[in-house]
Each structure stands twice: as C-alpha cells, then as structure tokens.
Amino acid sequence: MMFDIFLSICQTEVDGYLPTEKVMFDNFFDQVRLADELGYGTAWVAETHLSCEIQKHGPEPVIPHFVGEIGLNTDILQLAHVIFAQTRNINVGSAVRNIFCNGGPIAHAEAVRTFLTLHGQKPGEKRQLNIGFASGRFDFSNRPYGIKPRNAVEKAAWPVVKGKALLEATEIFLRLLKGEKISRADVAQHELTRADFRTDADWEKVPGSFSGAQGSIPLAPFWDFEKVGVIPFDAPLDLLKLTIGSHDEKAQRLANSILPVGVFNLSITPPAVIEATHARMAKEYNPAGGPWRRDMMPRTAMVFLEDTTAKAKAAAEKAWVTYWKAMEGTLDQKKVDQAVENTLAGSPDDLAAAIKAKYHPEDRLMLWFDFNTHDNAAIKRSMSTFMKDVAPQLQRVSAGGGPA
Question: Which one of 239, 293, 319, 392 has the fewest CB atoms closer than 10 angstroms to its CB?
C-alpha cells in the first residue's frame, strides 16, 4: 500500500477564524516539507479558479453559504517549482487541473511541456509531476473562457455536452502533450444521441431530438485551430505522469488510446465501481505504461487521528457538519452520518484495522489531514502519527516513494 498526501489550501472560515492567504500558504509549505521528511510519495494539491466569494454575489451563486475560498492554488505548475525547491524526495500531483479554463487544452499542453523542460534542467532530477486533469468542478470557472451553452440544444443538454467537451479537450491536450502536430480537422467530431442520456425524457427535452434510439445531433467544436505543435519539443516526458479525473469510461478509454493515463477515484465511490474500473483498466491501460497496477488509481481518504476513536469520530462529525452547512446552507444528519462512516477516524490501531478492512493492500491512498481545520500543529501531528503508528502496521511496498 502506498501513502500520498492531499492538500486543499481551503481558505474557509472554521470556528470564526479565517486565515489570511499568507498564513494558508505558509502552513501549506510547512506541511509539504514535513510530508517529504516523513516519506509520503506524492503531494496532491487541489486546484480552483476564480473567487467563490465574488461569484456568490452574482445572479447564479454556486455556494452562497460558503465563507472564503474553496482553494487558493490556481496553477500547480508554478506551485510545483516551489515545492520541488523546498523538498528532496516527494513527487507533486494536481487534483485536479482544469483543462477547459485559462486558454484550454492547447495552452495547458504547452504549459506542461514548458514546466517539464525547466524541471528537467536540474542534473539527476527524477521526481515526477502527476497531472491530474478534468473539466473543473464549477461551471462559473469555465464560462469566461467560452465553455458554456452556445445554443438552445446545448443549454438543454449541458451536462452531456460538457462531457463531450471533455472528450474533445482530452484528445487535444494529450496528443499535443505527446508531441503530435494537429489541427481541428485531425480531432474527432462529437454528437448527441439518445444513448448519451439517462432517460427518454431527458433526451426529448433537447430541441431537434429524435424519437427512439435513432438519429443524432452534431456538436460544433469548442476549439477550432489550424495545425499547431506545442513547444518546447524536447520536454522530458519521463518526468510526467497523467491521471484523468472522470468516471466516464469513454474518456478513460480515449485518454489511454493516446498516452498511459491513470484514473482518480473518491473514497465514497462504491466498491463495485472501483473494482469494475480496475478490471476494465487492466485491459485498456496504454501498454506504453506497462501493466495496469492498482496504485494507478489514487483514492482520497479523509483522516481524523486521535488517541481514542470516540474523539476522532466527534472531530470528523464536527468537520462534516460545518462543511455541509457551508456548502448547502442546511444540515442533513443522514448525509453527515454517511460521510463520517466513509472517513478514516480513530486511534492509530483502529485506523490501521479500518484501512486493512476497506482497502486492497496494493492501493494508493491520498490522505487528507487538513479537511475543515487550520490547526497547522494538529495537522502535522496527525501526519507524523500516521507514518509512525499506522503505516508500520500495514504491508510495506518499496515502489512509490516512502513507507506504506
């Protein structure tokens, strides 16, 4: 089993305290340096774009009850340079990079190749950047960049259209990242069909839809461009790993038809879905990356470590109550109870037992210690306790950088 760390840099109000941006970043780098010393394999960092505080005052607030910013990292590439400069062994990952905004997939492909070129300037550098990529959590981050419904058809079918846009962006991003020279004419065209919708009713809401399963509605491309090639051409791709943040089987399959690409999975994903994904990826993972391994699907796991399970469960419930109130403005105790049940909360011994029961011994966990807390000392204490008292109880694997 492999242990990574997930860091949210979430600047939200907790118990009336809202840290400054400087404090947030000071704490973040303090935790990353410790994670490196403790032997965590990869520091995965959440990514957010455009202010949630400003957006909630607009006509369509997404999280009107949330105080602060969901996250402060807007560019993993800039952040990774600083992380690598302050650490010795830990890898860096984006969880996840939005390839819709900030110029779209062409700009992101060029930015990543530029990062790799600069990162590889250091003699003997072997630490990798894992670009987790997807379409972004909130649509308001994409709309200023033109990724929004362009007509009545797309408005009626937007969730499906957004998924098609991810297929388009994924193909462009990965092919250019790979080093291909392509134009819009080289990229697959997409369309809407009944099979893309969950129900007949959803399909029939779309203007121009056909009765039954026959017929399709073509979609105009979101990115129209002449033949391009992104530079630098000699970027060291061996310093790059890729992970797609989508449960769409088509997106996972498309990505791996171009380059080896892993898959993100949340801790709350049903076990049957997780195992089905592993079985499918064992067949569809790009052979250039070798055989599929379970650690290629990192899984988030929120951690609350205390000397007793009762204390840990209480801390987890308090955090989840605060979170749901901030996200939805109301409190659903059933939702809180379910979230706490999916959280790793307990004493070191209980946590080790829970991990053995819940996860496969070859899984990779992204341990989330900073959920809804700004207590830097407590976060670091939990990080240390996990590696000192929990990790040794679990099977050790040499690959992946660090004890597990």
Answer: 392
